[in-house]
Amino acid sequence: MSLMRDINRAGFRPWYETQLAAGFGFVALGLILIVAGAAFLEVWLGHANVLNDLIYAGSSFICLGSGGYCWIKAAERIGAAEHLAQQATCKACKAYGRLELVSEEHLPQVCQMKASCRRCRHLWQLEI
Length: 128
Ligand SMILES: [Zn+2]
Fold this sequence. Notes:
Shape: elongated
Number of domains: 1
Bound molecules: zinc ion
Distance between the termini: 15 Å
Helix content: 55-70%
């Protein structure tokens, strides 16, 4: 997935809104999975049948692990979107989110992008 392609195709604001919606979708899914995992855990601890114990224990670990993974993905998406949103204001004309990415460079710890304002064509650098 190329961030530059995604932002330039839809525009910054729709991309930002999509990232937030997906992030909060992950939060909701993670919450449901963690509640389900806790329910399986409670049932597992109350049973003495070995086969049921394995099923409930496995279901509990899968739900709790998946729920935790969903929350990690949510934090990544929302954090990246918010980090870019803080840099999305043109320094020359103060237009927010009216940018087009003109280059993208992936370094080991950071992705550097050069943005151009759609209103005044001012260039500035974004990092994520
Ligand atoms: Zn501008």
